[in-house]
Amino acid sequence: MNVFKKILDSIFPEGYTCELCNREIFDGSRLCAECRDEVTFNNGHTCPVCGRRTASDCVCLECKELAPIYDRAVSALIYEKGVQRLILAFKEDRPYLKTWFAELMYAKCDFKAVDAVCYVPMTKRAEYKRGYNQSYLLAKELAKLLKLPLLKNALVKVKETSSQKSLTKREREVNLQSCFKADKSVVAGMSLIVVDDVLTTGSTANAISAELKKRGALKVYFVTVASVHYEKNEENNVIT
Alpha-carbon distance 227 to 83, whole Å? Predict the structure, then answer.
């Protein structure tokens, strides 16, 4: 966090300035009226499997072509415009956004008979570099709201991976192979919510779900702050 940001936060504490433009606000909201137009809530039609925004409430073509390994996913926001900036800020220097994001995610959680909450892990090196695991922060807050136990050691990431951002879906899948390990003694026989910040192609969600189910988990649900609204590019299979 830079010095200017620290000074700004001391003058205008959390809840008194817009999270996107730092304009003063006095209505208790997180965003000013202008910036609210930059944040899209995922409240319209969604795929009942992956939870992404769709033209209707039918299963999307991607899920029809190849069903995800996870049982269902939901997200609170659409990953575009202001939402992208909010999540970047959360990952870089605003961990306090966990509370607001968890409240939005909680409103989407209508799963039945869930046993516990876990989260997408980082390697120790990556977590040390960032200072915290944003997915853990979200999961901790969401578990409190759901009144469910948080499993801190259910999953570990056992190897560093390349950035997923510029990779195709297939490249992401290869990048994540043998990346996660689940503790069978912790997850066997359980229905779990896994928390992450963003669902894009679903490669991470599938890799983790495959490992959890391999170790005996019964159901795996993914809950994220945001998910992409995408169209398939037929040339390179990139989700945008």
Answer: 10
Task: Give me the pLDDT at residue 93, please.
Answer: 87
Asked whether the beta carbons of 62 and 205 are under 8 A apart, the reply is no
The three-state secondary structure class of 220 is strand
Q: pTM for the full model?
A: 0.85
Half-sphere exposure at residue 41, Cβ-oriented, CA atoms within 13 angstroms: 8
Dihedral angle over CA of 168, 173, 177, 182, nearest 10: 130
Q: 75-126 pLDDT, tens per residue?
A: 999 999 999 999 999 999 899 999 999 999 999 999 989 999 999 999 888 8
* Helix boundaries (H) for the chain: 3-11, 33-36, 61-65, 82-92, 98-106, 124-130, 134-146, 169-175, 184-187, 203-214
